[in-house]
Specification:
22 strands, about 550 residues, single chain, ten-stranded mixed β-sheet, 15 helices, about 20% strand, alpha+beta, five-stranded mixed β-sheet, globular
């Protein structure tokens, strides 16, 4: 991991900063030999969300059309270069480039966010959208046409191509008595794909070409979630009528009650799921009461709800107060024993901020309630795991984790270590049911972490866990490694675990994505259970589409060996 400075971690978060996350970082230089004329290419800083991957000067081109992408790819194939699609860099895992990538390496980033952003509504209804469009723009476009989605990530500064590459998700299952509306899914956004267009090798032509794959094409399932091993330029997504949502926040429910044993009385996570179907718990480190958000479909505004007409309605969270950034800087300077105070401060800011901004009970169009993480929020690293289980076992899964997490944090702190400076985030969503696409003969995305287990049709939900911290917190990697071992040892029989592609996993005591047996064995095997040949079939298809391995990097070569 590149050395991180306090300024690196805080410059996008401090309220007074007011600057973009990345400096311009653009260097004009003579293009690589033979690079296609007429396509902008320059050197540019690449840095991911938490700064764990930073390359000072990578060649980056900005094509205007999908045809220009094909031109660039064929140049790269002939010149021996790698091509890496680049969106908004809002990710953690080394799926674009690795931390070991050097400016001298023959790696070309292709920035799709400037020109490949077109979208239009088509019959179905569906939306045709190019890969560089942001989720902010896509959801706003859908809203303007009376359309929306049920399950989407909370940040809007994500490219559509990036979200589909890693099966981006939100939090949603059916509330008690709720029926899934046509055009919607409780699974990931990859499950809404009706067709997609990708750059693939054409052996008869001896070159890379654009090819479109419909959802019922068995070969296309490998592209629905390709984890960076392909280049998708456009997708058609099934969508449905937009909903008005209500979001009620609770900060008075003790963790012992919310995460209590299955069958417990009171305000448990599972009861909130029954109530609204869409629940997120944010549990700041060393605090007793999580911040719980409960969304529900609400066609008419409740009298107590404040109407909102734009997204990002938690300014105290998205624009970090100076008191929080100041304390964060002290942690990063080495005063890690202040971590419990930092957790309490974050909780207090949230609890008082909800009241001060009248944000505890909101109502509006789905986009305005589902988008709530801006680029100016505090930047931390995160691990990520998807626990498949039955709806009846949601509370058990969460309770077992909560007990483990509290004990583990306490054990580390007893040794003078504070590996978790941020929060636990817990969401529950559905699996990727192919029937939600409405396409006869469709199959689930082959490599989606939410792909259903064929041998467990009763496992109809995914409990998503993330634990956030500053990347330089002492003991963090060892803590995450032990937690990873807990997940895979505990959730067996009645549940099973997969890694969340965009987050941290595969931990050694010193780094993420570095445990070779985990990356090459445990992760693929989590898709093969049953036994299920889909993982190996998908890898074969991705290799067939790119036999010259233009769309890869050393980490993907290891993962998808």
């Amino acid at each position: 991991m590149a050395e991180l400075t306090r300024r690196d971690l805080l410059r996008a978060s401090a309220a007074a900063a007011g600057a973009a996350w990345l400096p311009a970082g653009v260097l004009r230089d003579d293009p690589p030999p033979g690079f296609p004329s007429g396509i902008d290419v320059h050197r540019e800083v690449y840095e991911n969300w938490a700064g764990e991957i930073r390359v000072a000067s990578l060649w980056t081109c900005v094509p205007r059309t999908a045809a220009e992408i094909v031109t660039v790819v064929n140049w790269a194939h002939g010149a021996g270069w790698k091509v890496r699609p680049r969106g908004y860099r809002h990710g953690w895992a080394p799926l674009t480039v690795t931390a070991a990538t050097a400016p001298a390496d023959r790696v070309l980033l292709v920035d799709t966010t400037h020109h490949l952003t077109a979208m239009r509504v088509e019959p179905g209804p569906s939306v045709r959208v190019e890969a560089g469009a942001s989720m902010d723009d896509l959801l706003a476009f859908l809203e303007a046409n009376g359309l929306g989605v049920t399950n989407t990530p909370a940040p809007g500064d994500l490219s559509v191509g990036g979200v589909l590459a890693i099966n981006g998700h939100g939090t949603s299952v059916a509330a008690a008595g709720e029926t899934l509306a046509p055009g919607h899914t409780y699974g990931t956004l990859s499950n809404l794909i009706l067709s997609l267009t990708a750059v693939v090798w054409d052996p008869s032509a001896g070159r890379y070409v654009l090819n479109t794959f419909n959802r019922d094409d068995p070969l296309g399932t490998a592209l629905l979630t390709h984890v960076g091993r392909a280049f998708v330029t456009e997708a058609v997504l099934r969508v449905g009528a937009d909903n008005n949502l209500r979001c009620v926040s609770h900060v008075d429910v003790p963790a012992a009650e919310l995460f209590g044993p299955p069958g417990s009385p009171g305000r448990t996570y599972a009861r909130y799921v029954d109530q609204g179907g869409r629940v997120e718990a944010i549990w700041f480190t060393n605090t007793t009461n999580p911040w719980v958000k409960v969304w529900s479909v609400s066609p008419q505004r409740p009298l107590t709800s404040r109407p909102v007409v734009a997204p990002y309605n938690y300014p105290f969270s998205d624009n970090v107060p100076e008191v929080v950034s100041d304390l964060a800087e002290r942690l990063l300077a080495g005063e890690w024993a202040l971590t419990p105070t930092f957790g309490q401060l974050q909780y207090t800011v949230a609890a008082t901020g909800l009241t001060a901004t009248l944000s505890a009970d909101l109502w509006g169009r789905s986009k305005n309630l589902l988008l709530y993480v801006k680029p100016t929020t505090l930047r931390e690293t995160a691990n990520g795991y998807a626990v498949h289980t039955s709806r009846a076992s949601i509370q058990r899964v969460i309770h077992e984790f909560a007990v483990y997490h509290e004990r583990s944090v306490a054990a580390y702190q007893a040794r003078g270590l504070y590996p978790v400076t941020g929060q636990v985030e817990i969401r529950v969503a559905g699996v990727d049911r192919a029937a939600d696409s409405g396409v006869p003969g469709a199959a689930p995305p082959a490599l989606s972490a939410a792909r259903p287990r064929a041998d467990h049709p009763d496992w109809d939900v995914v409990v998503w866990f993330d634990v956030l911290t500053f990347p330089t917190a002492p003991g963090a990697h060892a803590f995450y490694r032990e937690m990873e071992q807990f997940f895979f040892a505990t959730y067996q029989g009645y549940a099973a675990v997969r890694a969340e592609w965009s987050k941290g996993w595969g931990y050694t005591t010193g780094a993420a994505w570095a445990d070779v047996p985990f990356v090459t064995g445990t992760v693929p095997d989590s898709y093969r259970q049953g036994p299920d040949p889909t993982w190996d079939q998908a890898v074969d298809v991705l290799n067939m589409f790119d036999p010259h391995r233009v769309f890869t990097n050393p980490f993907l070569d290891m993962l998808l060996a």
